[in-house]
């Protein structure tokens, strides 16, 4: 799965299997899924995937 964000710090944290927000259990899920997740600043990488999804902006 490709994750896209405009915040380079969040992208870097996600690629290290670290959550940029506090959510109980999220970091453990990121660690388990590390080989299947890739975060990027490049929205084109997500568009080139089989099933592109759009997420609305979440302020936290």
From TrEMBL:
Pfam families: UDPG_MGDP_dh_N (PF03721). Residues 1-48 form the UDP-glucose/GDP-mannose dehydrogenase N-terminal domain. InterPro entries: NAD(P)-bd_dom_sf, UDP-Glc/GDP-Man_DH_N. One of its GO terms (molecular function) is NAD binding. This is UDP-glucose/GDP-mannose dehydrogenase N-terminal domain-containing protein. It comes from Candidatus Methanophaga sp. ANME-1 ERB7. The lineage of its organism: Archaea, Methanobacteriati, Methanobacteriota, Stenosarchaea group, Methanomicrobia.
């Amino acid at each position: 799965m490709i994750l896209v964000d405009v915040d380079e710090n969040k992208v870097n944290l996600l690629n290290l299997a670290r959550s940029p927000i506090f959510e109980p259990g999220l970091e453990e899920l990121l660690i388990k899924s590390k080989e299947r997740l890739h975060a990027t600043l490049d929205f084109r990488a997500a568009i080139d995937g089989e099933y592109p999804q759009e997420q609305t902006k979440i302020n936290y």
